[in-house]
Design brief:
This protein is an alpha/beta fold. It folds into 2 domains: 2-207, Rossmann fold (3-Layer(aba) Sandwich); 252-374. The chain is 53% helix and 8% strand. The protein has a 5-stranded parallel sheet, sandwiched between helices. A two-stranded antiparallel sheet has the order 6-7. Helix 5 (134-144) packs parallel to helix 6 (166-177) and helix 9 (229-239) crosses helix 10 (243-251). The longest helix is centred in the last third of the chain and has 22 residues, at 289-310. The mean pLDDT is 88.
């Protein structure tokens, strides 16, 4: 049901009207910031296109066999395509790409699909899955031209389609040039400009909006009724309209990470190298890329708040419960905050590139230290 999608009222109305008017495109691109519900809406649309008893002429019932199977991502009427690790004999045209995966990669894939089935806002992340492979698009091509159920639509969801390599993108383009009548392709992406213009031009593009803070706060309170209004507002403020970012923060003990940001800065500024090292070990100890990135995001927010304090924009502070400490920090140190934030953003990019996190953090705090000086009183 459309209530499964957080916010996006404009998008919901567009998709409802497509269904009611029977004016379906053969291919769509759902684009917008990460975590705004593009995959979730694609699954909901697939349910509607195949629902046995639609509600109000434009909403999936969520109760029929078709809806239940599609929602579980185990339906013949919905194929979920995502980045996969390199498999055995990847050049073989005929075999299913999942059959080429080794046991560990296949188990990782199944585990991620289970998480995605439970939470459509979950971002599928499989180790060594760096691109959407040509074999996945070849498999799609085989299935898309097969006869489906009468009056229904096979839906092929290519999630984070910007991860297609050149071969995959060119192969998909050939399918888009000769689209089958009983199938719909939905591509989702947060990087529309990275796609081939010829692919973008052959699809109907639907932009997804960032999710308003009040919707994210309601989502947080629904997931954890014990969370305080202040903390829910804090998380919503740094989620930047993204449910996936919100979930990462909730799942990584955000209060502990935020305190670790402050403690690490104090260790660096006071010259306690042993404590600084212990803090860095704590941050990277779980080898969790999302956790490290969240720590760095909190670090950026701290220095953004320092900028707002220094400019007299106290109403823009995100760490409102730390206002006194921020004011004290800004009063004690001269810091090149914009260059510091730029250095932290570079560190986040390096984390994405799988550079050794310990090296990244040590270099980062050395760099931050060089851009800060204690004020002379």
């Amino acid at each position: 049901m459309w209530s499964n999608i957080i916010g996006q009222q404009r998008v919901k109305e567009i998709l409802k009207n497509f269904f009611k008017n029977g004016k379906l495109s053969h291919a769509y691109i759902f684009y917008g910031n990460e975590g705004t519900g593009k995959d979730a809406a694609a699954v909901e649309f697939a349910k509607l296109l195949n629902c046995d008893s639609p509600l109000n002429e434009s909403e999936a019932c969520d109760n029929c066999k078709s809806c239940i199977e599609i929602d579980s991502l185990k339906s013949q009427m919905l194929r979920f395509v995502t980045a996969l690790p390199a498999g055995k004999n990847d050049s073989d045209d005929d075999s299913n790409p999942l059959e080429k995966l080794d046991k560990e990669d296949f188990e990782n894939y199944l585990a991620q699909i289970e998480l995605k089935a439970v939470d459509k806002y979950h971002t599928v992340s499989i180790p060594k899955a760096n691109d959407i492979r040509i074999s996945s698009i070849r498999q799609l091509k085989k299935e898309i031209y097969m006869t489906g159920r009468s009056g229904k639509k096979k839906v092929f969801l290519i999630s984070r389609c910007e991860m297609m390599n050149t071969q995959s993108a060119n192969s998909l383009l050939k399918i888009l040039e000769e689209p089958p009548k009983d199938s719909v392709i939905i591509l989702t992406t947060s990087r529309l400009n990275s796609l081939l213009p010829t692919i973008v031009g052959r699809c109907q593009n639907i932009r997804f909006d960032v999710i308003p803070n009040n919707k994210i706060i309601a989502y947080i309170k629904q997931k954890n009724s014990a969370i305080t209004d202040e903390n829910a507002s804090f998380i919503a403020g740094i989620s930047e309209g993204s449910i996936s970012k919100c979930n990462q923060l909730l799942n990584n003990n955000f209060l502990e990470l935020r305190e670790k940001v402050i403690d690490t800065l104090v260790s660096m500024l006071s010259g306690h190298s042993l404590k600084l090292g212990n803090n860095i070990d704590f941050i990277i100890g779980k080898k969790d890329k999302a956790r490290i990135k969240n720590f760095l995001v909190f670090l950026i927010i701290w220095f953004r708040d320092i900028i707002n304090i220094s400019n007299g924009n106290g109403d823009l502070i995100i760490n409102r419960d730390k206002t006194e400490r921020l004011t004290s920090f800004a009063g004690k140190y001269n810091s090149d905050n914009y260059r510091i934030i730029s250095a932290i953003e570079d560190a986040i990019t390096d984390i994405e590139k799988n550079v050794i996190p310990e090296l990244i953090l040590y270099n980062l705090f050395f760099r931050i230290g060089s851009l800060m000086n204690k004020k002379k009183i």
